[in-house]
Specification:
This protein is mainly alpha-helical. Helices cover about 75% and strands about 0% of the residues. It contains nine helices and no strands. The N and C termini lie far apart (about 65 Å).
């Protein structure tokens, strides 16, 4: 009897291989042959899962976004009694990829962002990821702002956009060595504290 292949598991295995290669070489160093070798599958298996290299890259980008999203949700679930402001800080910290254990993921994420400048398929995936994050951040900023007692009301959508841009920028500054992870963390949390003053 022929062996059944879990198509979705194989796609995730291939996405992990793409991420490892992108971390080592950048996206320009990701070839179908090398992905197959890293995933320990045949070239035919890669081609059955993905019709094109771009389709494979789009899936891998979505895979990274899902991993980051799962970590954000896990951090929020561990502290269910927290305020909206605390939840916002935890989520922003998680997506900024400042911790050492996320350094490889940060390099891969930025490689995808750079490639998205010339790939509409990747840009579309990133826009969808950012739109979902912005919606969640907007909701948290609005909720936290209600009890902050500020003199002037916050514009939750504008603040959510600024926070996403800040998180991405801090990722870059840490990767190139302009800021240490600790310095970046301080910048992020000073910005968050300033929202509620």
């Amino acid at each position: 009897m022929p062996r059944q292949v879990d198509h979705e598991s194989r796609r995730r295995l291939i996405a992990e291989a793409v991420c490892h290669l992108a971390d080592e070489r950048g996206l320009e160093g990701v070839t179908l042959r090398d992905v197959a070798a890293r995933a320990q599958v045949s070239m035919g298996a890669v081609q059955r899962c993905f019709r094109t290299k771009e389709e494979m890259l789009v899936f891998a980008l979505g895979h990274i976004g899902e991993r980051i999203g799962e970590r954000v949700r896990a951090r929020l679930v561990r502290s269910p009694a927290q305020s909206a402001g605390t939840a916002l800080g935890l989520a922003a910290t998680e997506i900024s990829l400042l911790r050492e254990e996320h350094r490889a993921e940060a390099r891969v994420w930025l490689a995808f962002v750079a490639q998205a400048a010339v790939s509409e398929a990747l840009a579309g995936t990133l826009r969808a990821n950012y739109a979902a994050l912005q919606e969640a951040f907007t909701r948290l900023v609005a909720e936290a702002g209600e009890g902050a007692g500020r003199a002037a009301p916050l514009d939750p959508q504008r603040e959510a956009r600024a926070l996403l841009a800040l998180a991405d920028g801090l990722t870059t500054h840490v990767l190139i060595g302009h800021l240490t992870p600790h310095e970046a963390h301080d910048v992020l949390h000073a910005h968050l504290a300033g929202l509620w003053e």
